[in-house]
Amino acid sequence: MSTISDTLVCRLAEADHVAVLTGAGISAESGIPTFRDPDGLWDEFEPQELANVEAFLDNPTLVQGWYRHRRQVVEEAEPNAGHRALKALEAHVPSVSVVTQNVDDLHNRAGSDAVIELHGNITRNYCVDCERTAAPDVVDAAIRDGAPARCPACDGLIRPDVVWFGERLPPEAVERADAATARADVLLSVGTSAVVYPAARYPVRAREHGAYVAEVNPDTTGVTPDVDESIRGPAGEVLPALVEAVGDRSEEGAGAP
Ligand code: OAD
User: Fold this and answer.
1) Which residue in 69, 92, 119, 209 is the catalytic one?
2) What is the tens place of the pLDDT at every residue in 112-146?
3) Under CATH, to which class is 6-32+79-119+169-255 assigned?
4) Cα separation of 92 and 244, whole Å?
5) Which residue among 22, 30, 34, 50 has the greatest number of ligand 1 atoms within 8 angstroms of its CB, and so is best to mutate?
């Protein structure tokens, strides 16, 4: 893990609002493959081939089955030290917004107060016709029977509550993410390749608004040239170390005359 600067620790300890942009890398240490990695059972499919409405209408059973598999991976996973550290940061900073591209629910399960889900949440399903929420076991039962999962109320097809290629992001989430970015004193970009928009523009935009911007990632990313600082290492190691340093600094500050 590369060194964390004093500047970052100070800026976090003094911040009123911190925005954290997260991507698949923060959940890698929970055993969830990053978005573009081959995925065991399903490695004969490219995500782009299944994560779109045409594929769903063409073969709902296949797409529902793929998402059910991914949901089961997520349900068996646990939040890791990186997710928990972001929750712990709330003890030292008045306001922390987690803007996530992940659909795995792990920030919610770690207890983060303000999670903004840009790409939806794979644990939720809804009917494409009446838009009622559908319980996961409706999908599970249909897939076991080899039939497409349909809404118990209106017989419409059931889909996961995630954003597919070619679809708009949920406007309320985008609005909240825009606001969180604009008022951030510090933005952390964690575990994202930062190549998918609009998420990838948040670090740049936060910096334009005067935020100090740091990324946490073992590798270079699309925003590496635009950040103030890159901490090279896994989120599950870097974030706990960072939050501990911020806690120490806050205590020192509190003890000062
Ligand atoms: P990617 O799979 O593009 O990138 C994952 C990033 O995590 C890479 O930069 C890795 O270097 C980094 N990484 C891996 N292990 C890590 C660790 N332990 N700690 C920290 N970082 C680690 O995933 P995203 O950037 O999330 O969109 O992809 C963004 C979007 O692309 C996804 O949400 C998805 C896809 O199109 C939709 O489905 C709409």
Assistant:
1) 119
2) 999 999 999 999 999 999 999 999 999 999 998 99
3) alpha beta
4) 10
5) 34
Alpha-carbon span 23 to 34, nearest angstrom: 8
Distances 22 to 151, 157, 222, 225, 235 between C-alpha atoms, Å: 32, 31, 14, 18, 10
Strands, DSSP E only, in the chain? 17-22, 95-100, 114-117, 120-127, 133-134, 158-162, 186-190, 212-216, 229-231
What pTM was computed for the model? 0.94
Give the position, in ligand 1's atom list, of the atom nearest the Cα of 82: 19
Q: What's the 69 CA to ligand 1 centre distance in angstroms? A: 19
Query: How confident is the model over 48-102, as pLDDT tens digits?
Result: 788 899 999 999 999 999 999 999 999 999 999 999 999 999 999 999 999 999 9
Domain residues of the chain, as ranges? 6-32+79-119+169-255
